[in-house]
């Protein structure tokens, strides 16, 4: 693996000292920033100012052991060629009891589809999203949110028993 | 309310507000219901009802082994399956920490570019039929056949190729396939000139596409557009140049770009990309080094008898037992490739079991949902299909 991107190391260092967050560089062009959901808007605004202009993916993850949800935003840049090589994961966690996050729509409009899908599949509410409603599932879908680990897939066996 | 547009017309125009359903059975909608709110013939807003072909790849990945996921992951975009395959395997390789031999990297680039041409031809065919240009549709699908035949010769399958495996590829190139590719390039170069005559420079098509669905550079960045649509709006971004994978850092090619950002520019970008892909193919055939097509780590595990029969006889890889249910170490990886329609990203979280804990698949069409919605606002109703076709949106790819 080649040496980490100096530019990225500096950005993460600045961010750590400025906002007291836990950010680290992982690999050549990858970094992770773990933030609290109360400060994510502030940090997102800062990241946008230094050139991160779009969100590639919004991922929701369910951790049933600790009863927590995690949301990961993968951000990068189109306009800045040096930053375009970089993908930064912005992660935040919350407990099952309070599955609410602030929406980043006001900072990056490109989260529109991702946040809407995460709401639908995991039941995480993004406060401030302009159109938070169902998109992919059937209109008459019932039951738990499908991407939660408590939703078990029914598996059909290869061999089917003969009716008696 | 009655108003008169121009006295000389003598036509009374009555502004009507209303809603229209386009699809999911409409020929111009694919598998998507577009709920259009109209004022006269100006679109005020659209509500995209996607999900008609949703097959829950992300949920199913929780109960499948890594290798068993390959055919499933290719399904969403059957016309661009090599790229779907490649992106996923690159993420798995990152978690496994495997090196890929040089020859396999070249072969990956080769099949990816063949698939890109096939994918663009498909997109152009669909755009042509949306605009009522049946010849374009038939040519698109006819020309695509040439490239699908090549994929079949290399991989053994026509659409879902499952060609790329962790650590390498499944089959080697033969002189007969090289000759096929060379012939196909000659054919396609000649045919692209005909395409320009019949479709691209056709005054009717130009009238339907020029200044339609204009996306400025700022909007393209803000809405998170991808692929040829992004480059038609003047943003220099192509994963093959930004973060080269395969053998893209060893071949010489250009990224076609336009400033206009309209439907016509998006069409031109695709045609010029086909030419660039053929340039890459020529270089790959010339430069491809000798060597193994599978990482030594896995190659050593193949039993000698099978090696003799399949590898030495037919230059095909048989799977060592390792692939059945390997357990990658704990960790996560994100990979990206430039698929036919744009950037494709996979995010895999591994918890040390033979199945991914969470797999996230971000396809180019998925990211175009919001772009399409925003582009339609303020357009004329008649231009809806032109915008839709020019984005090259493929519904199953967005639904996953």
From TrEMBL, chain A:
EC assignment: 1.6.5.3
Domain NADH:ubiquinone oxidoreductase 30kDa subunit: 34-155
Cited Pfam families: Complex1_30kDa
Single GO term (MF): oxidoreductase activity, acting on NAD(P)H
Keywords associated with the record: Oxidoreductase, Transport
The keyword Transport is annotated on this UniProt entry: yes
Protein name per its UniProtKB record: NADH dehydrogenase I chain C
From TrEMBL, chain B:
Top-level class of the enzyme under EC nomenclature: oxidoreductase
Secretion signal span: none
EC number(s) per entry: 1.6.5.3
Pfam families: Complex1_49kDa
Domain of life: Archaea
InterPro entries per UniProt: NADH_Q_OxRdtase_suD, NDH1_su_D/H, NiFe-Hase_large
Keywords: Oxidoreductase, Ubiquinone
Domain NADH-quinone oxidoreductase subunit D: 131-400
Gene3D superfamilies: Cytochrome-c3 Hydrogenase, chain B
GO molecular function, one term: quinone binding
Protein name stated in the entry: NADH-ubiquinone oxidoreductase
């Amino acid at each position: 693996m080649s040496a980490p991107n100096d530019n990225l190391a500096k950005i993460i260092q600045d961010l750590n000292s400025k906002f007291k967050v836990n950010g680290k560089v992982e690999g050549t062009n990858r970094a992770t920033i773990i933030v609290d959901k109360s400060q994510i808007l502030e940090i997102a605004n800062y990241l946008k100012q230094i050139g991160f202009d779009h969100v590639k993916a919004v991922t929701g993850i369910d951790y049933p052991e600790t009863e927590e949800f995690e949301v990961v935003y993968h951000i990068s840049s189109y306009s800045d060629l040096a930053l375009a090589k970089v993908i930064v994961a912005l992660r935040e966690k919350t407990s099952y009891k309070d599955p609410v996050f602030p929406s980043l729509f006001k900072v990056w409009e490109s989260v529109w589809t991702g946040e809407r899908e995460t709401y639908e599949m995991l039941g995480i509410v993004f406060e401030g999203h302009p159109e938070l409603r169902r998109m992919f599932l059937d209109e008459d879908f019932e039951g738990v949110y499908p991407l939660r680990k408590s939703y078990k897939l029914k598996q059909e066996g290869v061999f089917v028993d003969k009716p008696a | 309310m009655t108003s008169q547009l121009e006295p000389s017309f003598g036509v009374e125009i009555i502004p009507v507000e209303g809603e229209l359903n386009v699809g999911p059975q409409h020929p111009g909608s694919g598998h998507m219901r577009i709920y259009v709110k109209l004022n006269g013939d100006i679109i005020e807003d659209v509500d995209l009802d996607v999900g008609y072909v949703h097959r829950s790849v992300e949920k199913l990945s929780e109960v499948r082994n890594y290798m068993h996921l390959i055919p499933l992951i290719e399904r969403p975009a059957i016309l661009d399956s090599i790229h779907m395959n490649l992106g996923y395997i690159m993420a798995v390789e990152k978690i496994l920490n495997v090196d890929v031999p040089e020859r396999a990297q070249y072969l990956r680039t080769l099949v990816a570019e063949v698939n890109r041409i096939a994918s663009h031809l498909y997109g152009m065919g669909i755009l042509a039929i949306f605009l009522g240009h049946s010849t374009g549709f038939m040519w698109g699908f006819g020309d695509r056949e040439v490239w699908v035949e090549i994929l079949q010769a290399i991989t053994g399958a026509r659409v879902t190729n499952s060609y790329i495996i962790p650590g390498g590829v499944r089959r080697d190139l033969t002189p007969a396939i090289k000759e096929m590719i060379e012939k196909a390039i000659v054919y396609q170069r000649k045919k692209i000139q005909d395409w320009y005559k019949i479709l691209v420079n056709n005054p009717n098509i130009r009238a339907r596409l020029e200044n339609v669905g204009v996306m400025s550079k700022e909007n393209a960045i803000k809405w998170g557009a991808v692929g040829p649509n992004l480059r038609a709006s003047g943003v220099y971004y192509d994963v093959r140049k930004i973060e080269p994978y395969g053998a893209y850092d060893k071949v010489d090619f250009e990224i076609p770009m336009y400033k206009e950002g309209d439907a016509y520019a998006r069409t031109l970008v695709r045609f010029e990309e086909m030419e660039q892909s053929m340039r890459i193919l020529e270089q790959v055939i010339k430069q491809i080094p000798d060597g193994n097509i599978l990482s030594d780590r896995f190659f050593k595990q193949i039993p000698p008898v099978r090696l003799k029969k399949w590898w030495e006889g037919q230059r095909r890889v048989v799977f060592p037992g390792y692939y059945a249910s390997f357990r990658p170490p704990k960790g996560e990886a994100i990979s990206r490739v430039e698929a036919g329609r744009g950037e494709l990203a996979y995010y895999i979280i591994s918890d040390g079991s033979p199945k991914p804990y969470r797999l996230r698949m971000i396809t180019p069409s998925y990211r175009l949902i919001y772009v399409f919605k925003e582009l339609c606002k303020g357009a004329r109703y008649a231009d809806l299909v032109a915008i839709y076709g020019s984005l090259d949106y493929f519904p199953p790819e967005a639904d996953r």
